[in-house]
Write a structure and sequence with these properties.
This protein is α+β, with helices and mostly antiparallel strands. The protein has nine helices and 23 strands. The strands form six sheets. The chain has a five-stranded antiparallel sheet with strand order 3-4-12-6-9. Strands 14, 15, 17, 21 and 22 form a five-stranded mixed sheet that branches. Helices cover about 25% and strands about 20% of the residues. The two termini are about 40 Å apart.
Amino acid sequence: MQPSRRNITRIAVAAAVLVLSGMTLAQESRYDVLVNAPFDKDYPTAATTKLLRDELVFQRAVQAYLWSLPAINLWAMKEGSEKVFGGGYNILPTWKERIRASTQVTTPNSDVVYAMGYLDLKKDGPLVVEAPPGVQGIFDDFFQRPLVGPTIDGKTWVGDVGLAGPDKGKGGTYVLLPPDYKGEPPKGSVPKGAFIYRSRTNNVFLFWRTFFTDPKDLTKPNAQIAATRIYPLGQKASAKPMQFPNANQKAADLLFPRDGTYFDMLSRFIDSEYVDPSDLDMRGFLHTIGIEKGKPFSPTPETRALLDRAGKSAFKISKVVIAEMLPQEAGGKYYPDRQWVNVFAGEDTAFQSARTYTNLEQRSAYFTSAYSASPGMVKNIVNAGAKYPVTSRDKDGNYLDGGQSYKLHLPPNIPAKNFWSATVYDATTASGLDNGQDHPSLNMMDKPAQTPTARLTCTLVRRPPPARTRTGCARCPARGTSSSSGSIRRRRHSSTEPGSRMILKRSGEAQARPRILNLRQTTQ
């Protein structure tokens, strides 16, 4: 006798309940083992000591990973860049044909020309940066906190350079001071009209973006970047000549580790850096796992195996935070009925808009899949700021799947002064999706075709089309993807099938909030 459809359904439901119950019991038993670890006459047994000591190392390693994500995301970029292009204040790698997926880095924007430099104020002392006109730039310390600049007419400038900075896009001279610099620079050493910015870390990230109107002619944005000059304070005449290596000519891996090697990188970062008194408690966490400034990091094989598990777990936790927890935060979605996530809810680069705590969910979510922060990226600055709506889901809330096709409908007259773009990213690494196209994005400079009602439809297809259309962006069937809308950037999430994430970016926003329609799956 064949079982009825109803009986099969009951069996399937019962099996699902058993599986879920088993998972719950397994989870409870893990914690019960810790709770019930035996003590003998009020003292831990040898087995209990090992169990709980390992648990402490594991927990502190996981939290150290999440705490240091802003720093190690950026330190990995520095090490990866210097391995390929060399290091020094005079080296400014530039993606002269727009950044391609061959450069592995979290949520790059292919719709501007990039230049990224890594400055060492401990090695070279205070540095002078002559920023050219027309850049949208940032100075961040290596915890990705914007450098604090001068107060002019009651406004304190923080991090931004160029269009959103004190030079207002006209070009300007900036002096960067290290964290242990006391007082003001000697009279006569600071160039006239220079803006003085102070860093809380020895290392400083310089990030330039320049704009174009014709994707086939990048002469102007490249010339703007090439006008940059960097030199030690008071030593312009003897400074090393600037170099602008074409960063697209050599593939570079700028991604941070997702396993135990993360802690080796963290140790190198700690050795290079100034000891900020506000970090002493977290440096205590690092002491527990064997990382101390000025001491070699040499864990035993057993500890290294434990740290490897902690690194892998912490990375997965960071993905749960951005995929599931971030949208639940206050202001985490742009619209209650749509899937566009606001990665900078609170408009605060310190993630302290609540004023009574640091929102670690927002912080971890952002820096597991992005780099750089400044008020120009966060706040509503009409005609100069930017917005980065991001989604890893379709309109029904299902994760984007690289094995499927989707359509993104955009309204007419998107309120962006400079440009808007839509970019697709790898769900795990948050790097640009390597889908066979030069750039995994579509922007207004591509002049995409519109419908008779002026609505624009972007199609994300399962495989690269024979030739790129003006409304198409290929997805990679073997990867997860994410999607973004606006002007620059980001995000990711992975699923059992390749997933992706999309980000819409707007640069030079013309109104406070973007107007974006839903992403829907198609059958093509």
